[in-house]
Amino acid sequence: MLQIHNLMVFYENALALNNISLSCREGEITGVFGPNGAGKSTLMFTISGIILDMKKTERMKGGERITILGGIKFKGKETIDIKPSERTRMGIVLCPERRRIFPESSTLENLKIGGYLASRSEAKRTLEYVFSLFPALKDLKKREGGFLSGGEQQMLAIGRALMAQPKLLLLDEPLMGLSPAIQSRLVEAVKEINERTGMTILITEQYAQPILPIIDYGYVMEKGTIVLAGTSQELTDNPHVKAAYLGA
Asked: How far is CA 173 from CA 97, 178, 205, 209, 247, in A?
């Protein structure tokens, strides 16, 4: 479904992504693991197209020059120059790092905002699914997003992304800063989304341990470069992954 070939991203003279090639097979969960500064968020911004808005903003204010090279194909179509709004309509939907919900809008309003591209029947059906996936949100639907806990906000961010009817769901560090219990709940939800809907999911995380068991294939990034790749079991058994990401 997604093929990335020789992708390079420069911030001025700093190389953020260095010759990245990876793929996400339809209906599978793909993981990308790496420490802070590895380039995971830049990768997600580039796949979703947000990098183009960042590039335009920097150019208008005379900031750092962003250069993008390489190729990104979604369902066989080259998307590297397609606007982020068009990529969303194609089904590429990003759930960003640090939630980025609308804090002054209610839980229900946040979800409805996410469903602006959906038909009325799609929005109704997806909203029901989100509330079944995260029952806490149904009880909190009138509460402003800014008054939700970190875990509740992450559930809301994932639910809002689902409302946009993704074919490829991009989850950028969804477990960041959350308790082990909430992390486990979210990992179960990601697995359930994939198994129930067949949705293709690409997930990035600094800590691989909670995510490794549910992925079909994964990559390890360091300093903007992919240094390892393999199935869930292959990465779990790899000594470098054990030492750096599993605490073994």
From this structure: 6, 11, 5, 13, 18
